[in-house]
Recover the amino acids of this structure.
C-alpha cells in the first residue's frame, strides 16, 4: 500500500516532470470513480479507519507492565535485567524497547515499565502470557496494551447515554430477486477484476452489473442466501450488497484474515487467520472471530495454537480443516460446534457459550456432521484396541445431548457421512477390511431420520470390490447416485430410498456402465444430474434425467475444472480456472445440455452463482404450479419468442451497419488506389496497371528456317 | 479439401510467399535453405543454397526474377529465381529478419535484430537493375524501437515504411527522412508482441497477428484499428483472402509447452474468420505443431500453411468454400 504522499513530494515530483505546479488547478483534475491509483485517500472517514487498522506504526506493539517492585537506583539495572529476561522469551523486544521511568525526586522506579515489541502480535501474546504473572507474593503483574491504557483513560467518569443515530433507510438488499426477467446473478474473478453479471441466457450473453478492479485481495464469497458478497482484505473482511450498486454494508476488522465462513442463515460471519510464530519451534497461532453480520459486532473470539484447532485432535496434521466451526440447527443459526480432542464443543448463539458450560465428551471421536435442517449431528468413532472395541456412528440431539441412535460397525477402516439436504436421510459410507485385512470394500448404512426409531438399512454394491469415486444425494429428493468401479471407466448407479409401493426399502433404479465420470452434480431442484469427468478426464459432461432414466445430452467442455448449477436449476456453468494456462473461461449450458454461450478470460479464478433464499411458496402451491405448468409457461414462451425475434432483428441490423462501414472503407481505399495510379506506374517504369488484365494473349507466328539443302534431282 | 503435404524442410517453417502470378510458392525455414515449389501440385522446383542460419522471411520481385531473403546468419541475399544462384549478399552486424521489395522493385527494406550491443534497425537498400552496379550501401537506416522488429513493409507509393515488433506497437516511418510519423494507439492496439503482418493486395489495409491471442485489421494510412479477431491461442501468422472477405489466423501455444498438454489443447488450427463480421467461420487442422506461416494464393483459390513441424500444407479449396454463408 502506498503511503500518504506529502505536498512537498508532490511538488518535487511535479518539478521533475517539468510541470509548473503553481499554475495547476488541483480541483480540475478528475479521477475516475472507484479508482485511487494506489494512493490512500486522506478523507476523514477513511483515514480514521486506516489508523485503526495500521498496527505496525502505532503503539500497538507496546505493552505496559504494572505492579513491578519499586526499587532505588542501585537496583534499577537488576530489575531491568529481570524484566528483559521475562519478556524476551516471548518475542523480540525492539532495541531500547524497555523503558522504566524513574521518579525524579526519589530516584526510585515508579513500579511500571513500557516494553516495545517488533510486531503487535508479539505484544498481544506477551500480554496474554504474563498478565497475572507472579514475580513474588506481593508483585503480580498487570499487563495492558498501551493503546488500551489510552482508551481507558478516555472513558468519562459519568455515564452518558449514547446518542441514538437517526434512522436512515437502507437499500432493499433483496431487490435483485425481483428482476423482471427472473435472471440470476453470478460473480467471476479474472486477473485483477471482480465482476458481477446477470446471466441473460435469452440474449445468450452475460449482462454486466458491477465491475471493480482489486475488489478483494484473495477471493470473494456469497453469503448462503445471496444477500451479501464478502471480500477479503489485509485488514479484515467486508460485505457488499444490493442488486446493482454493491455498496459496502459492513466491515469486520481481522488483520491478515485468511478464511471466512457464513452461518447458514447468514446471521454470523466466522473469520480465520493464522500467524507465523515468533519462535520457529512454536506452532502457528490461530485467531478465529465470530461477528454479527448486520451490526459488525464481534460476538466471540477464539485464540490458540494451530494444534488446538486441528481437526479430530489426531495430531501431526498441521493444517486446520475449514470450517473449524460447523453450524447446526438449520437456518436459525442456533448452534455451532467444533471437534476437539475427545470432545465435541457445542456453542449456542444466544450467549456464545458452551451448552451447559461443558463440551460433549466422546472418546476418540474423529468426525461429526450436522443435519442441514435439525439440531442433530452424526459422529463417528473409529475402531479401537485392535478391533476389541467396535467403531460407532451415533446421532446426537442438541441441546439435550441425547443419543438418538447408535450403530456399531466392525473391522472399519474409514467412514464418511452424507446428509440429504432436507435432513431426512443420512448415508454413511463405510470402508471395511476384508478378512485378510489386505484390502477394503465399501458399503452404505442408510439412516431414515424422520421415521420412528430411525431404522437403518445396509446397502452393498453388487460388486463388492468396487471403489466408490463419488456419492451424491438428490437435493430435496429420495434418490442418490454413486460412481463406483475400479477401472478408468467406472459405472454409475442410481438408488431410491423407496421401492415401488414400499416406502421403507431401498431399491436400485439403474446402472450406467463404463462412463467417463468422476464427479456428480445434481440440479438443485432434483431430477436432473450432470455426470462430469473433470480435470484428468478432459471435461466430459453428460446431462442425465433420472425420472426418465435417459441421457438428455452429452457434451464436452475441454479441460473444465468446475461445474456449478444456478440456484434455480435452469442453467449450469462449467469453468476452467487458472489451474492451467489454456482455455481459461466459462461456458453456460441449459439444464438439458445445450451450450448457450461461452466467455474466455485469462487468469480465471472463480465462478460463483449468487445463491437465492428458499422459496416462499408452500409445497402445496409448488405442486399446483407443477401441475398447471402449461398455463403458467405460456407467458414465458411468448416472451422467449419475442426475444428471439428481437435478437435476429438486432443481428441483421448489426450486420447491415458493419457492411455499410466496410463499404465506406472500401470506397475510400479504392479512391486512393485510383488517385495514386499514375505515380505507381511511374515507380514501375510505366508498366501498364496493377490489374491482372495486363496479360494479353497474343498469337505470334514465328517462321524459322531450320535447314536449307540443295539437291540435284535428275529428271529423266 | 485434401491438402498436399510438402516435406522439404528439416526445421520449423518461418515464412511462405507466393509470387504475383501465383504459380510459385517460396518457403523459408529454420534450416538454411529456402525452397521454391509449384503452387499448383506442390512439386519442388529447387532450393537456394548459401545461407548459414535460419531464414526468417523472403520476398520475390514482381516479375518473379529475383528473390530476397533475410537470415539469422547476419546477411540478406539476392537470388536469381530461375537458376538458384546467389546474386548479392548484404552483410550486417546482427541477424536480418524482415525483407520486402518496394513498389517497382528498386528498393528493399531489411530489418536487423538487436544483437551483441547492436540495436534493432530498419535498412533501406537500393536494388540495381544491373547487378554490376549493386552496392551494399544503405539509402537510409532507421533506428528507434526497442526489441525485435518482426516485420517491416512498404506503405503506399514507397513513401512510408511500417514496422511491427515485440513492443506490440505498429509504427509508420517516413522513407525520406527516417522520421517516426505515427504510432498505434496503446489502448486499441495489441497488448503483446506482434508476430506477423500481411498487406492487402492493393496495399490499402493490413492485418497483424499477436501473441495477445488476437489479430487486428488496420488502415495503412491512419493506423485505425478497423477490426479485431479474437481467438484462443497466440497468433503467429495471418493472411487475407484476396478473393473473399475472409482472413485466416494461425498459431498455437508456445512450442515449449506443446509436450505438456493434449494435442487438442494446442489449437494448431488455421482459423478462418469473416473479415467484416469478425466471426469465426471454420478451421483447418493438420499440423502437429504451431502454425508459423500462412499465405494465400493471389487467385484466392488455395492457401498454404507452414508449421513448427517442418511441413508445408497446401490446400486447394473445395467448391463449397466459395459458397459459405454466415
Amino acid at each position: 500500500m502506498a503511503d500518504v504522499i506529502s505536498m512537498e513530494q508532490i511538488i518535487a515530483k511535479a518539478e521533475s516532470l517539468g510541470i509548473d505546479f503553481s499554475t495547476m488547478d488541483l480541483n480540475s483534475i478528475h479521477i475516475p470513480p472507484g479508482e485511487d491509483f494506489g494512493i490512500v485517500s486522506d478523507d476523514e472517514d477513511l483515514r480514521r479507519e486506516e489508523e485503526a487498522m495500521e498496527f505496525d506504526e502505532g503503539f500497538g506493539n507496546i505493552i505496559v507492565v504494572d505492579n513491578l517492585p519499586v526499587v532505588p537506583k542501585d537496583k534499577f539495572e537488576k530489575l531491568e535485567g529481570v524484566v528483559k529476561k521475562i519478556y524476551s522469551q516471548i518475542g523480540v523486544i525492539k532495541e531500547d524497547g524497555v523503558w522504566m521511568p524513574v521518579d525524579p525526586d526519589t530516584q526510585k522506579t515508579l513500579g511500571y515499565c513500557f516494553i516495545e515489541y517488533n510486531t503487535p502480535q508479539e505484544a498481544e501474546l506477551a500480554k496474554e502470557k504474563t498478565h497475572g504473572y507472579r514475580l513474588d507474593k506481593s508483585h503480580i503483574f498487570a499487563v495492558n496494551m498501551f493503546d488500551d491504557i489510552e482508551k481507558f483513560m478516555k472513558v468519562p467518569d459519568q455515564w452518558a447515554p449514547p446518542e441514538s443515530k437517526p434512522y436512515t433507510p437502507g437499500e432493499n438488499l433483496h431487490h435483485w430477486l425481483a428482476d423482471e426477467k427472473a435472471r440470476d446473478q453470478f460473480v467471476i474473478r479474472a486477473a485483477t477484476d471482480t465482476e458481477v453479471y446477470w446471466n441473460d441466457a435469452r440474449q445468450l450473453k452475460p449482462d454486466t452489473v458491477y465491475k471493480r478492479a482489486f475488489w478483494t485481495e484473495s477471493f470473494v464469497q456469497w453469503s448462503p442466501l445471496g444477500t451479501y458478497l464478502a471480500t477479503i482484505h489485509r485488514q479484515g473482511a467486508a460485505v457488499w450488497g444490493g442488486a446493482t450498486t454493491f455498496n459496502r454494508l459492513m466491515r469486520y476488522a481481522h488483520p491478515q484474515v485468511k478464511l471466512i465462513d457464513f452461518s447458514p442463515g447468514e446471521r454470523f460471519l466466522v473469520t480465520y487467520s493464522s500467524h507465523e510464530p515468533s519462535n520457529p519451534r512454536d506452532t502457528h497461532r490461530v485467531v478465529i472471530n465470530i461477528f454479527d453480520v448486520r451490526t459488525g459486532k464481534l460476538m466471540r473470539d477464539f485464540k490458540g495454537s494451530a494444534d488446538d484447532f486441528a481437526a479430530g485432535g489426531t495430531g501431526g496434521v498441521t493444517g486446520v480443516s475449514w470450517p473449524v466451526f460447523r453450524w447446526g440447527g438449520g437456518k436459525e443459526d442456533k448452534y455451532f460446534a467444533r471437534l476437539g480432542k475427545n470432545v465435541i464443543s457445542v456453542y449456542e448463539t444466544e450467549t456464545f457459550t458452551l451448552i451447559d458450560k461443558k463440551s460433549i465428551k466422546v472418546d476418540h471421536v474423529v468426525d461429526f456432521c450436522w443435519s442441514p435442517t435439525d439440531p442433530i449431528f452424526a459422529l463417528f468413532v473409529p475402531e479401537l484396541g485392535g478391533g476389541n472395541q467396535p467403531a460407532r456412528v451415533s446421532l446426537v440431539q442438541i441441546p439435550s445431548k441425547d443419543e438418538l441412535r447408535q450403530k456399531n460397525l466392525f473391522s472399519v477402516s474409514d467412514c464418511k457421512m452424507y446428509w440429504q439436504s432436507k435432513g431426512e436421510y443420512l448415508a454413511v459410507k463405510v470402508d471395511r477390511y476384508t478378512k485378510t485385512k489386505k484390502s477394503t470394500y465399501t458399503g452404505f448404512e442408510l439412516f431414515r431420520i424422520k421415521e420412528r426409531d430411525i431404522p437403518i438399512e445396509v446397502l452393498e454394491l453388487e460388486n463388492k470390490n468396487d471403489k466408490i469415486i463419488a456419492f451424491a444425494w438428490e437435493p430435496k429428493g429420495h434418490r442418490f447416485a454413486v460412481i463406483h468401479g475400479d477401472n478408468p471407466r467406472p459405472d454409475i448407479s442410481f438408488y431410491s430410498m423407496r421401492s415401488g409401493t414400499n416406502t421403507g426399502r431401498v431399491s436400485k433404479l439403474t446402472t450406467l456402465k463404463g462412463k467417463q465420470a468422476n464427479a456428480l452434480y445434481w440440479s438443485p431442484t432434483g431430477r436432473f444430474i450432470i455426470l462430469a469427468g473433470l480435470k484428468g478426464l478432459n471435461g466430459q459432461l453428460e446431462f442425465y434425467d433420472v425420472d426418465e432414466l435417459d441421457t438428455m445430452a452429452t457434451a464436452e467442455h475441454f479441460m473444465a475444472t468446475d461445474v456449478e448449477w444456478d440456484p434455480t436449476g435452469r442453467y449450469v456453468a462449467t469453468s476452467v480456472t487458472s489451474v492451467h494456462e489454456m482455455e481459461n473461461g466459462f461456458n453456460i449450458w441449459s439444464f438439458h445440455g445445450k451450450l448457450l454461450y461461452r466467455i474466455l478470460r485469462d487468469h480465471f479464478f472463480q465462478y460463483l452463482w449468487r445463491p437465492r433464499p428458499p422459496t416462499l411458496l408452500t409445497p402445496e402451491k409448488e405442486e399446483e404450479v407443477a401441475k398447471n405448468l402449461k398455463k403458467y409457461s405460456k407467458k414465458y414462451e411468448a416472451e422467449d419468442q419475442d426475444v428471439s425475434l428481437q435478437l435476429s432483428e438486432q443481428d441483421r441490423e448489426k450486420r447491415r451497419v458493419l457492411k455499410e462501414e466496410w463499404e465506406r472503407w472500401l470506397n475510400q481505399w479504392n479512391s486512393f488506389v485510383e488517385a495514386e495510379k499514375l505515380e505507381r506506374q511511374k515507380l514501375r517504369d510505366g508498366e501498364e496497371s496493377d490489374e491482372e488484365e495486363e496479360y494479353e494473349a497474343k498469337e505470334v507466328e514465328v517462321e524459322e528456317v531450320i535447314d536449307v539443302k540443295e539437291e540435284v534431282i535428275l529428271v529423266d | 479439401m485434401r491438402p498436399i503435404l510438402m516435406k522439404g524442410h528439416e526445421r520449423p517453417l518461418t515464412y511462405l510467399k507466393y509470387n504475383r502470378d501465383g504459380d510459385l510458392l517460396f518457403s523459408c525455414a529454420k534450416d538454411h535453405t529456402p525452397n521454391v515449389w509449384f503452387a499448383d501440385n506442390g512439386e519442388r522446383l529447387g532450393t537456394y543454397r548459401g545461407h548459414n542460419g535460419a531464414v526468417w522471411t523472403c520476398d520475390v520481385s514482381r516479375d518473379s526474377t529475383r528473390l530476397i531473403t533475410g537470415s539469422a546468419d547476419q546477411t540478406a541475399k539476392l537470388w536469381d529465381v530461375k537458376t538458384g544462384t546467389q546474386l548479392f549478399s548484404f552483410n550486417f552486424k546482427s541477424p536480418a529478419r524482415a525483407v520486402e521489395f518496394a513498389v517497382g522493385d528498386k528498393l528493399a527494406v531489411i530489418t536487423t535484430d538487436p544483437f551483441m550491443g547492436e540495436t534493432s534497425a530498419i535498412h533501406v537498400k537500393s536494388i540495381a537493375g544491373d547487378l554490376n552496379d549493386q552496392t551494399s550501401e544503405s539509402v537510409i537506416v532507421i533506428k528507434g524501437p526497442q526489441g525485435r522488429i518482426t516485420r517491416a513493409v512498404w506503405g503506399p507509393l514507397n513513401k512510408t515504411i511500417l514496422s511491427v515488433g515485440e513492443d506490440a506497437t505498429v509504427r509508420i516511418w517516413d522513407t525520406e527522412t527516417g522520421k517516426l510519423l505515427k504510432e498505434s494507439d496503446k489502448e486499441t492496439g495489441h497488448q503483446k508482441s506482434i508476430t506477423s503482418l500481411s498487406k492487402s493486395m492493393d496495399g490499402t489495409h493490413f492485418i497483424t497477428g499477436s501473441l495477445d491471442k488476437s489479430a487486428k485489421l488496420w488502415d495503412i494510412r491512419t493506423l485505425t484499428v478497423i477490426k479485431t479477431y479474437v481467438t484462443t491461442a497466440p497468433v503467429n501468422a495471418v493472411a487475407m483472402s484476396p478473393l473473399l472477405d475472409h482472413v485466416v489466423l494461425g498459431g498455437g501455444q508456445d512450442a515449449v509447452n506443446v509436450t505438456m498438454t493434449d494435442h487438442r489443447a494446442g489449437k494448431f488450427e488455421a482459423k478462418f474468420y469473416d473479415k467484416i463480421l469478425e466471426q469465426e467461420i471454420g478451421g483447418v487442422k493438420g499440423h502437429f505443431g504451431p502454425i508459423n506461416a500462412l499465405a494465400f494464393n493471389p487467385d484466392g483459390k488455395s492457401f498454404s500453411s507452414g508449421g513448427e513441424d517442418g511441413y508445408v500444407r497446401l490446400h486447394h479449396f473445395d467448391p463449397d468454400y466459395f459458397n459459405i454463408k454466415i
Remarks:
- Residues 232-326 of chain B form one domain.
- The first strand of chain B starts at residue 4 and ends at 6.
- The two ends of chain B are 20 Å apart (CA to CA).
